[in-house]
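Predict structure. Chain length: 55.
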Amino acid sequence: MTDSGPVLVVTNLDDPTADVVISELHDRGVPGGRVGSGGLPPPQAVAGTLTANRG
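Prediction complete.
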């Protein structure tokens, strides 16, 4: 991976597969975190923007 930005993992707090992904990201020095979707009150909305760095 080259020049990556932060990664947000949206999942259940007790998801063992997400634990593996987060651990791998940490080992690679990729900043980020986890958001547990189970504790959010309804209605729920997630918004984001994906951009490509073509510099």
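Summary: The radius of gyration is 13 Å.
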